[in-house]
């Protein structure tokens, strides 16, 4: 248990350091060409456009907040108070952290007619890591079959990547916005896993 707890803290710290390095790189400008190059490959249309818009709607801040509140209430009623607190705090922290960095950096989005507001980090990418990662951590041990557990983790991990991809496909974020969202989301997720493990030990 101690090793797992320490590993969570190491992963969280690593994600945070990489996020800070990425943030410095964005401020200094070496990623501009890369961001423009990657975004030039996307031309939203057809089924993929509809799917990307649907994912954007589901993983909008308001939608995830409502879904999370329902899950928190269910956990509380099932006498899973520590789990309820874990999920409530991690979602709240995610919203605060994303808002702070968006306001501090005030990075402009790619030119599009879909979404407004500041670009870095991608809120959808951050919440996908935090929300889906939290559900995996809280519920995966309830599945008895190792094969099913591994399958669900792989599928949900691929879905997280799909969410990041759709932010690029819709041309509402730069590539570095998505990577930044994944990194800060990972830092938040594994830090709270570390805290939750300490709480369960008490």
The tally of helices reads 8
Our estimate of the beta-strand percent is under 5%
What's the structural domain tally? 1
Work out the radius of gyration: 17 Å
Helix content: over 70%
Q: Quick one: biggest sheet? A: none
Q: State the separation between the terminal residues, measured CA to CA.
A: 13 Å
Order of helices and strands: HHHHHHHH
The averaged pLDDT comes out at: 87
The chain-level structural class is mainly alpha
Shape: globular
Uncertain residue ranges: none
Number of strands: 0
Q: Can you give a write-up of this model?
A:
The protein has one domain (2-201). The relative contact order is 0.19. Helix 4 runs antiparallel to helix 5 and helix 6 (123-139) runs parallel beside helix 8. The chain is built from eight helices and no strands. The chain has 202 residues and is mainly alpha-helical. The two termini are 13 Å apart. The model has no long low-confidence stretch (mean pLDDT 87).
Describe this structure in a few short sentences.
With 202 residues, the protein is mostly helical. It has eight helices and no strands.
Any descriptors?
single chain; globular; mainly alpha; about 200 residues
Topology:
Elements: H1 2-28, H2 32-39, H3 46-58, H4 61-77, H5 81-105, H6 123-139, H7 146-169, H8 175-201
Helix pairs in contact: 1-8, 3-7, 4-5, 5-6, 5-8, 6-7, 6-8, 7-8
